[in-house]
Specification:
Number of strands of chain A: 0
Oligomer: heterodimer
CATH class of the largest domain in chain B: Mainly Beta
Helix content of chain A: over 70%
CATH superfamily of the largest domain in chain A: RNA polymerase sigma factor, region 2, helix turn helix motif
Strand content of chain A: under 5%
CATH topology of the largest domain in chain B: Immunoglobulin-like
Helix content of chain B: 25-40%
Structural class of chain B: alpha+beta
Order of helices and strands of chain B: HHHHHHHEEEEEEHEEE
Strand content of chain B: 15-25%
Strand order of the largest sheet of chain B: 6-3-2-1-9
Largest interface: A-B, 77 and 55 residues
CATH architecture of the largest domain in chain A: Orthogonal Bundle
Number of domains of chain B: 2
Number of domains of chain A: 2
CATH class of the largest domain in chain A: Mainly Alpha
CATH architecture of the largest domain in chain B: Sandwich
Number of helices of chain A: 10
Largest sheet of chain B: 5 strands, antiparallel
Number of helices of chain B: 8
Shape of chain B: globular
CATH topology of the largest domain in chain A: Rna Polymerase Sigma Factor, Chain: A
Number of strands of chain B: 9
Structural class of chain A: mainly alpha
Radius of gyration of chain A: 18 Å
Distance between the termini of chain A: 20 Å
Shape of chain A: globular
């Protein structure tokens, strides 16, 4: 329970800071940066696998966050997810805008199993994660792998098909069947 | 297997694919536009974001260089310190480079700017220059009918509470929203298919300032602040 109240407090703090940043409060924005930059940089690095490109993406992401802080809606998303989603999408856009094609090693899928607990992470509730992981484990391996690879590498369908040397239609079918089973499993709780 | 024959509703699958980042180009543009215009679809997107939310915990943290914050601060647009003009100039330079990225959330129509048609295959391009009463405000628009990609380069936009929204006005004189665009620099979008036929040499593009909105407005609330005729070259 204290874990949850800590999580709630962390969320409330970030949500409040985003509200203040939306009103032009630079100090609040800097606090947001200090609290979340390591996480968001980790997201960019994972997608782009290049420090310079990731630093550029991180800057772009925070400029977007500053300019769009007013759009954050605490009823629709947790603040850290909202921030990390912006970083992930920014990194994906940068990766796909060319000139920065990143080669990903073939064992990237197994690499993704590594997990490290961070200070911020410890503040986050675990229960949701357990349900998602349990449901991911219920998928066929190929379904789970394409979904996880898409998320962590930021690959499009076309890139996945190339990377896996598998026809596009087959990859789509794996993803969609996996998503269906994932949804059914998670909605059952 | 039984569950393999049961599929997600098309829109639920599309929402998940958008959330995972599987979509590219036109497909992504269509999905983003749908997210803006279709509350049910937007709900699917929120639902999928919530489902995969725990995956974000698996990204390992990494400390960025200390200089990154300075770079960000230099690009914030309402600097109040003495060197705010310098900051503004620096920010604009950065914004032109990153304009398409920076506009992404406001516009939500951003597509992969990588051209998927070789230059030699491009037969015609439509261009327009939008100007109005605001000193220094100029928009340069180019549109490729083959890819339906429109690029808008915004320069000289004053600071306002409102957001710039682009409209296509066809022969019937009715403005139809192409969505809100970035305040500075280049925004790229794929024009929705139902608006493409409006882009001809009889059409005008208009820019109005509107309340920030995630969805394109049905009609402009005020007079356009800039407008220009479309020319095919």
């Amino acid at each position: 329970m204290s874990q949850e109240s800590q999580t709630d407090r962390a969320r409330a703090q970030l949500s409040n800071l985003l509200g203040q940043a939306a009103n032009g409060d630079r100090q609040a924005f800097q606090d947001i940066y200090n609290l979340t930059a390591a996480k968001l940089f980790g997201v960019c690095l994972r997608i782009l696998s290049d420090r310079q490109a990731s630093e550029d993406a991180l800057q772009d992401a925070y400029v977007k966050i500053w300019r769009n802080a007013g759009r954050f809606d605490a009823r629709r998303a947790s603040p850290i997810t909202w921030l990390a989603t912006i970083a992930r999408n920014t990194a994906i856009d940068r990766k796909r805008s060319g000139g920065n094609r990143v080669m990903v090693s073939d064992d990237a899928i197994t690499e993704m199993a590594t997990e490290e607990r961070s200070a911020l992470e410890k503040l986050e509730a675990r229960e949701d994660r357990n349900i998602l992981n349990k449901c991911l484990d219920n998928l066929e391996a190929k379904q789970r792998n394409v979904i996880r690879t898409a998320f962590f590498e930021g690959h499009s369908y076309n890139e996945l098909a190339q990377k896996l040397n598998t026809p596009l239609g087959t990859v789509k079918s794996w993803v969609r069947r996996g998503l269906k089973r994932l949804k059914d499993c998670m909605d059952d709780g | 297997m039984v569950e393999d024959t049961k599929l997600l509703k098309d829109d639920e699958a599309l929402a998940a694919e958008l959330v995972l980042g599987l979509l590219d180009g036109d497909e992504k543009a269509v999905a983003l536009r749908k997210q803006l215009s279709d509350p049910t679809f937007a709900q699917y997107v929120d639902d999928w974001n919530r489902r995969i939310d725990p995956l974000f915990h698996e990204f390992q943290e990494a400390e960025p260089a200390a200089s990154i914050w300075d770079g960000i601060e230099n690009r914030l647009d309402n600097g109040s310190s003495d060197d705010s003009v310098v900051r503004m100039k620096r920010w604009r330079t950065g914004a032109i480079v990153s304009g398409a990225l920076a506009a992404c959330l406001a516009l939500a129509l951003i597509v992969d700017p990588t051209p998927n048609v070789a230059p030699s295959e491009v037969s015609t391009v439509a261009v327009a220059q939008l100007t109005g009463d605001i000193e220094g405000l100029v928009l340069a628009v180019s549109y490729n009918p083959d890819t339906a990609e429109m690029r808008v380069d915004v320069n000289g936009m004053p600071e306002t509470e409102t957001a710039p929204e682009l409209w296509i006005v066809g022969g019937d004189g009715v403005p139809r929203s192409l969505g809100q665009i970035g305040r500075n620099g280049i925004s790229a979008m794929t024009v929705p298919s139902d608006h493409r036929e409006l882009i001809n040499s009889a059409a005008t593009l208009e820019l109005s300032m509107e309340p920030p909105s995630e969805t394109p407005h049905a009609k402009p609330t005020g007079k356009p602040v800039a407008s220009g005729k479309i020319t095919f070259i």
